[in-house]
Design goal:
Blueprint (H helix, E strand, L loop, with lengths): L1 E2 L5 H7 L1 E5 L13 E9 L9 E8 L2 E12 L3 H5 L6 H10 L1 E2 L9 H12 L2 H26 L1
Antiparallel strand pairs: 1-3, 2-3, 3-4, 4-5, 5-6
Length: 151
């Protein structure tokens, strides 16, 4: 996986999804601390792969190296992922299109709260379309760079 901003830093900065959490009146150990959080996009850089998914690392704006949650999300229909997943395809495809904590990544104690926030507020139709567009830009740039090094 490679960060979208490694190819398109200006566009990534303009179109990053941020969430501002204000102080809460009800103390709870798993509530998200008041802060600004950023969803950083990562896409597969394997040539020929068309997985149509993103991994979003959630970080505090002031602490970009400390990942609080990694969320895997695919924007296509379940049937698209069901064809590409070998075991427990129905459930895995369902989780992919709803968003899930990336099983290969370390998660913080706030990861479930960030996943819930993603599903309820962050993932709206304009953001889905943006992720799709970013994926296509990323894959096109990957192919362009591969062609430059091959030629």
């Amino acid at each position: 996986m490679r960060a979208f901003h490694s190819f398109f830093p200006e566009l990534a900065q303009r179109e990053v999804r941020c969430v501002h959490i204000g102080p809460s009146a009800t103390p709870d150990a798993l509530e998200l601390p008041a802060d600004e959080y950023v969803y950083i996009e990562f896409y597969c850089e394997e040539h020929g792969c068309d997985c149509r998914r993103v991994v979003l690392d959630v970080v505090r704006k002031g602490e970009p190296k400390k990942v609080l949650a990694s969320i895997s999300y695919g924007w296509e229909k379940e049937s698209f992922y069901r064809k590409r997943i070998s075991c427990d395809a129905d459930e895995a495809a369902r989780r992919m299109v709803r968003g899930e904590l990336d099983p290969d990544s370390e998660q913080s104690k706030f990861a479930d709260a960030f996943l819930d926030l993603f599903k309820r507020l962050v993932l709206d139709e304009p953001y889905r379309l943006r992720l799709r567009r970013h994926y296509r830009l990323f894959k096109d740039e990957l192919a362009r760079r591969a062609a430059c090094t091959a030629g």
